Amino acid sequence: MSEFRNENAPIIVEADGFHLIDAHGQQYLDGHSSLWCNIHGHRVPAIDQAIRSQLDRVAHSTLLGLSNGPSIELADELVRITPDGLQKVFYADCGAAGVEVALKMAYQFYQQRANKRQIRDKFLHFDGAYHGDTIGTMSIGSIGRFKDLYNPLLFPVVWTSLPNASPDNLDLEHQQLEYWSSELEKLLELHHETLAGVVIEPLVQAAAGIKVEASGFLKRARELTRRFDTLLIADEIAVGFGRTGTLFACEQEEVAPDILILSKGLTGGYLPLSATLVTDEIYEAFLGDPWLGRTFYHGHTYTGNPLACAAALASIRLIDENQVLKNVKQLEELLQRELAPLKSHANVKEIRQKGIMVGIELALEDNPFPAELRIGHQVTLECRRRGVVLRNIADVIVLMPAPAIPEHLVMQLCEVVRESIFEVMQAAKRKL
Ligand SMILES: *Cc1c(COP(=O)(O)O)cnc(C)c1O
After folding, report:
1. pTM listed for this prediction
2. How many angstroms does the Cα of residue 220 sit away from the middle of ligand 1?
């Protein structure tokens, strides 16, 4: 907090396309798509117009006991574009709340399902997981820096690791896949009767530092959760809406989860909204006469906000109209090509990439840099001086351009990142 106070972070007052403009009129390329949520850039005419039109009708009215047009339309659209079987939509106003909804629904589902009622009070999550900063989502998260202080407040969980991709050694990747799949199987065997769900970030653990998962693991997790009758809960808050190369990451392994959570890119990065999608089977466990007490008592004041839903509808339409997924494919190759020169740099331990999510891990002869150097942070400050905003995760430099960004801006982004890494490493060498 002290450092941040001294740093004079830019105050953004305006934006233009893929650039942010601060109070001094300085322009910055938005290299992390406003913390992973922006899709089409800023001040997109079609989205602006959709929000304005909705504003002329009604800005907000509750979904508790009433409904509204945009939330119904958006629910229809989400059911249409997400994997098969996800048929019902519950709205909240941020990603963490969407995950909390999933946890509460899963827990209640097992108590209320018709054929086999059970108390299931545990969730399984994976090492490196991040699902938000509320008490429930911290419980199923495993990034110590964010949650260790709060451990006494968190509920107990079951956890294991998942296999990482190793594109340069597919044999190793396959061995890891087999090993961690069988570990998951053992844990499910042991705990399945008390396990309400397995929570996973499909394909990429973003906040862990863009950890790309071994190909095939998601599918295994789906098979195992089905076999042991526990819910598969997919958190696509970061990976959804095109970032991994497909509209949703689950598509790449032909997986349909029981619960899917969307947020960040849902409104194109315009307004806070999340959607938790579930199967009919889950939905039906909540039906019944009022006195049976099967209602899902979870309501946020701004749930299903019409302005946010209108923005989401416009953004989803644009993804299709502008062939954004095609652009993502081109950007994916471009990023790979433009960042390749960094691979031979002595301080670049690894470049991890899936789609247009990139993590460049910096290290000192394979060991982490001394934490007090804040090397990752120094690189983002250097990028900022060169007109690009990014945010590091410890010593991982994360690039997360918007899916609709044009190629020439990604070339510029990569150039600034390369130069900034070289510059900061030179300076670090002098210090060490
Ligand atoms: C950002 C994120 C969240 C939390 O979303 P918020 O809107 O910030 O609460 C949850 N899960 C994943 C994978 C995320 O990247």
Report:
1. 0.98
2. 24
